[in-house]
Specification:
By secondary structure, the chain is α+β, with helices and mostly antiparallel strands. The protein is built from six helices and six strands. The longest helix has 15 residues. 24% of the residues lie in helices and 21% in strands. The two termini are 14 Å apart. The protein has one domain: Roll (Nuclear Transport Factor 2, Chain: A). Strands 1, 2, 3, 4, 5 and 6 form a six-stranded antiparallel sheet that branches. It is globular and about 40 Å long.
């Protein structure tokens, strides 16, 4: 059985996240919506640490912390435009694991952004992760499978824990679906794969009973 995650990319998706991804759950999303006015940050304040720089390019000087103590991050640009779907998912998960939410914004589709600015997205992801006490311990991204309709599917085994959906820290078998926007792969959907369906997307030796 495959079920769509309702909050980690927001999902949420966290994430892109079981953490990062991406976001966490309907309860957390509803709570964010209710608390958003109280959590309004001063205009221009970001919500995450600076995005990681590519090893081949010199690192940009970090911006000065805002009054809220948060350093704004530029849109993700560390990956080459022709990066494969699995590299995009890996970069997204690394950003979510490191709570670089502004960076993760650059890896998701317009559908998942839902009209939110980078700052709005980062604030929402940060709130959901903190409220859900999400911890991403690791992940294993498998090679992408390009579909006949031009989309891509990327399996991932996420090792994470949160206080709502995965209190025991069990492995989560995720399937990311990506689409191309302006020539770049973007995460468009995140689902959980359960039961016998895992064998369809994951190598046999990676599936635990």
């Amino acid at each position: 059985m495959i079920r769509t995650k309702t909050a980690a990319i927001p999902v949420p998706a966290f994430t892109l996240l079981g953490s990062l991804v991406v976001s966490l759950c309907v309860v957390a999303t509803a709570a964010w919506a209710a608390a958003e006015p109280a959590n309004e940050a001063p205009q221009g304040a970001g919500a995450a640490a600076p995005a990681a720089s590519s090893p081949s390019a010199p690192a940009a000087a970090p911006s000065a912390p805002s009054a809220a103590g948060v350093v704004p991050s530029p849109p993700a640009g560390a990956l080459a435009p022709d990066s494969s779907p699995d590299k995009i998912v890996t970069a997204y998960l690394e950003a979510m694991q490191g709570q670089r939410f502004a960076e993760s914004y650059g890896y998701v589709s317009k559908t998942l952004k839902a009209g939110k600015s980078q700052e709005e997205w980062a604030k929402e992801q940060q709130y959901i992760v903190q409220m859900g006490e999400v911890k991403i311990f690791g992940f294993k991204v498998f090679p992408a499978a390009i579909q006949t309709d031009g989309t891509a599917r990327v399996p991932n085994i996420l090792k994470s824990q949160d206080k709502y959906l995965n209190q025991l820290g069990l492995d989560e078998y995720e399937l990311y679906e990506l689409v191309k926007e302006d020539g770049q792969w973007k995460i468009d959907q995140q689902t959980l794969v359960e039961g016998a369906d895992r064998g369809e997307y994951f190598p046999e030796d990676a599936v635990q009973p």
